[in-house]
Design brief:
It is built from five helices and ten strands, in the order H-E-H-E-H-E-E-E-E-H-E-H-E-E-E. By secondary structure, the chain is an alpha/beta fold.
Amino acid sequence: WIEDQQGTQKEKISLLKKICTKEKITNFYDLGANYGEFSAALSSKVTNIFSFEPNPNVYACLEETKKLYSNIKTYNQAVGIIESKQKFYYNKRYSGGGRLSEWTWNDKRYQHFNNPEFYDFKNVQVIKFLDFFNKTNNKEPCLIKIDIEGAETKIIKDLSDTLKLLPKWFIFFESDKSSDLKQLPGQLLFKQDHDLLIGKI
């Protein structure tokens, strides 16, 4: 169905493809990769893709996606600003929304998934993304997509000093707090609804 629809995130993916092509992006970091739609779509535009997905059910799908693309590396881990082991809470009937704290859907569109028996958790390894980034990106042009249910700006702030050393970088993430931008590195390059693109060109 996703292939027939040509994806579920067409507009966002189109924007990121243009950036990767025009700016000659080397590394794409997909934080909260889900089943790998963004990773797959950008695989022909970049050299390396690093895809993180802690949800065990969705990660199984991501692994199947990876088999079709030689430059995607997958990690069944969560990302954060401190290395630790934590409980990752997810909904067995819906692939989105998983996070490192207990939750239920407030959005009326998804409240039929709120049956307690649909929720589960898994103990996961949380890696310090800054350390991983420093090991894998040698001052190369990069794009980072972050969709980790509210912890996006913590990751970005932790990266700030490292990003200052790069000639070019882009981060695409979701936030509904305009105040966040004042504390983040780079400049605002694109904003639509809650989707933001910041970067340094």
